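Budget justification aside, the reviewers requested a transparent look at the raw inputs and outputs of the sequence design task funded under Objective 1. We therefore reproduce one unedited record. The lines immediately below are the structure tokens for a 661-residue chain.
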């Protein structure tokens, strides 16, 4: 099958591959028998444009092809896979949408981040793709290819090339690889079907594919369409799959990224939108069928000079109609165009709220991409939300957009924010929107829904395991859930005005470019914004290190009548955890309630005396804003059977409770 490109591509030299591409069938779980093969690609012609705009086409024999040995077992250790860090990806991508084909030439710069020399570089792609050629130092090399069982790809498997080096790559040193690969990306839910997921549900989750009307390549964790180096993991093995996805994102953060795209499409069916890493890019379309309606059209697009954040590289193409709204562009299917107005109206309502916290306008226009099926699972990356744009209640749309638009406010192409000030901030702003619409209790209920998972992941003690400090967090339960809790606590400690000022200043620092001081100085930004107390202890315990969660309890409550109608209540609070916590302590009577904040040291206790009008009825520690190992609200009800005798009050701590949801 010929993978051809029609039209003249100015200032580009490219080779057209003649490839024998497999269909949608999957690589067998058992590795194939050893065999020697040549790469499936053959150069049939090359076309280039000189400085005078003249196009030259040359035919010629294929270059010497490498030997690719299909191995019975991997020849790479996990330590080698963890050692490789990508610092630059330069991708030249060709798509043939009608045939669901992709062919890529990639220049990869990789660094050895281990303490030992690397004799080979492991490179992995989806099992539906085949390695064609790999060059190191300008020389074509032969290499073995192994099939790995790994659910980081929707097929459930990867093709791993073990690229030999002429000399081992020393620790801290980098090398550039020139690689070519091709294949088919068709819908596949093999990894989900293998664990018993119903087929319909599985395909609505794993919807990645190349097609004429829609192409969606979400990247590592969904479809591995660009080279990676990862440890094989499977679904059902605890949180290892999600940790490996997070580790991949963290290792890619800061890498330079460039992509040139050429798309061959059937005459009369050009894509109307292209998004690379969530960023819309202009499409240049040439579609001159003329007297030959079978002649394909060509569309090209480029993304240059980008820096990857805590996201996977992604590529989307679609035939959609664009509808612009306030800070939003919706790319909709015909059947959902009527619903777009509801989405843009909801975006306008949410934007005015977010502006008070994050600045007057977002740094990027939020792109809403209509997915092919209303049941398809949503996906977000950067300032892109891929979701079915069907009609929904305004309250639901506003909740979705409060999260998505926060990403648009935080978006920065040259200096992306760290995950905890991106995904954590988006979750935090989503809870603040709920607080605005439905009250504080419902907002804290959203946090409480994820607290148990956070408590399970956190180390019981600092010596048990290092945990995940927020700046290096790879698991969503940390950079999303814990980060949102951290921002809630900072809100209580520093105040709304100081936190909003710090968030706006952090975003402005990102705008200043790579040389600016980023979120490492967030503590200083809070101080500049008006936070009066010293928060160094908080950043030490909650951001820079991971000491687990506090474990609070009410040891005792002693009420004593002070003067006529007033009582002095002594509340003793203990912390069995290794993390200090600043929590609200509330004493209630039939007449009023008094709340004071108390800093409870790690592995310690503190007594706070609170003066209240009327006989006290209860004492409460924490209100759900500080996550704990067991619960986040503790209440002790006081015995009032002998109101004239304060000494008879014998409080017994009640069972810890959680905020209402």
């Amino acid at each position: 099958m010929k993978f051809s490109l029609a039209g003249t591509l100015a200032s580009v030299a490219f080779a057209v591959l003649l490839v024998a591409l497999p269909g949608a069938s999957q690589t067998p779980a058992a590795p194939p028998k050893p065999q020697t093969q040549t790469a499936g690609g053959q150069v049939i012609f090359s076309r280039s444009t000189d400085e005078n705009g003249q196009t030259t086409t040359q035919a010629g024999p294929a270059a010497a092809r490498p030997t690719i040995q299909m191995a019975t077992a991997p020849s790479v250790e996990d330590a080698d896979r963890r050692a490789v860090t990508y610092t630059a990806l330069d991708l030249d991508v060709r798509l043939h949408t009608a045939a669901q084909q992709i062919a890529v030439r990639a220049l990869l710069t990789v660094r050895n981040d281990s303490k030992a020399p690397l004799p080979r570089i492991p490179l992995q792609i989806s099992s539906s793709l085949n390695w064609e050629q790999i060059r190191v130092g300008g020389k074509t090399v032969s290499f073995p290819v192994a099939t790995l069982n790994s659910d980081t790809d929707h097929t459930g498997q990867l093709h791993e090339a073990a690229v030999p080096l002429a000399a081992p790559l020393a620790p801290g040193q980098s090398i550039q690889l020139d690689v070519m690969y091709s294949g088919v990306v068709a819908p596949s839910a093999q990894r989900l079907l293998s664990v018993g997921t119903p087929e319909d549900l599985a395909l609505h989750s794993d919807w990645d594919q190349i097609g004429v009307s829609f192409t969606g390549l979400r990247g590592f964790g969904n479809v591995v369409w660009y080279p990676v180096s990862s440890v094989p993991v499977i679904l059902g093995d605890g949180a290892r799959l999600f940790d490996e996805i997070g580790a991949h994102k963290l290792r890619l953060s800061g890498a330079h990224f460039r992509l040139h795209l050429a798309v061959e499409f059937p005459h009369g069916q050009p894509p109307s939108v292209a998004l690379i890493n969530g960023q819309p890019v202009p499409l240049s379309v040439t579609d001159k069928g003329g007297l030959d309606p079978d002649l394909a059209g060509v569309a090209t697009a480029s993304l240059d000079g980008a820096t990857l954040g805590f996201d996977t590289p992604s590529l989307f193409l679609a035939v959609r109609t664009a509808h612009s709204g306030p800070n939003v562009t919706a790319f909709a299917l015909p059947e959902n165009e009527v619903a777009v107005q509801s989405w843009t109206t909801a975006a306008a309502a949410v934007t005015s709220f977010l502006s008070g916290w994050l600045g007057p306008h977002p740094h990027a226009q939020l792109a809403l991409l209509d997915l092919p099926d209303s049941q398809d699972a949503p996906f977000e990356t950067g300032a892109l939300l891929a979701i079915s744009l069907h009609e929904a209640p305004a309250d639901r749309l506003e909740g979705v957009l409060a999260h998505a638009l926060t990403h648009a406010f935080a978006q920065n192409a040259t200096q992306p924010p760290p995950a905890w000030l991106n995904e954590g901030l988006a979750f935090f702003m989503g809870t603040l929107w709920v607080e605005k619409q439905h009250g504080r209790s419902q907002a804290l209920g959203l946090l409480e829904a994820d607290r148990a998972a956070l408590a399970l992941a956190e180390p019981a003690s600092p010596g048990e395991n290092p945990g995940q400090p927020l700046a290096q967090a790879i698991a969503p339960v940390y950079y999303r859930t814990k980060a949102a809790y951290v921002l809630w606590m900072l809100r209580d400690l520093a105040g709304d005005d100081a936190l909003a000022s710090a968030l706006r200043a952090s975003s402005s620092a990102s705008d200043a470019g790579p040389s600016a001081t980023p979120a490492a100085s967030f503590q200083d930004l809070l101080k500049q914004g008006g936070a009066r107390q010293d928060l160094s202890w908080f950043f030490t315990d909650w951001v820079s290190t991971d000491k687990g969660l506090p474990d609070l309890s009410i040891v005792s409550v002693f009420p004593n009548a002070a003067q006529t109608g007033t009582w002095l209540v002594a509340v003793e609070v203990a912390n069995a955890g290794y993390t200090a916590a600043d929590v609200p302590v509330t004493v209630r009577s039939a007449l009023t309630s008094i709340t004071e904040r108390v800093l409870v040291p790690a592995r310690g206790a503190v007594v706070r005396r609170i003066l209240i009008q009327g006989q006290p009825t209860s004492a409460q520690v924490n209100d759900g804003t500080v996550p704990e190992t067991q619960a986040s609200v503790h209440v002790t009800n006081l015995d009032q059977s002998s109101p004239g005798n304060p000494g008879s009050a014998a409080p017994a701590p009640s069972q810890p409770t959680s905020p209402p949801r």
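The chain has three domains: 14-319, 419-544, 552-653. The chain has a mean pLDDT of 85. Computational costs for records of this kind are itemized in the attached budget.
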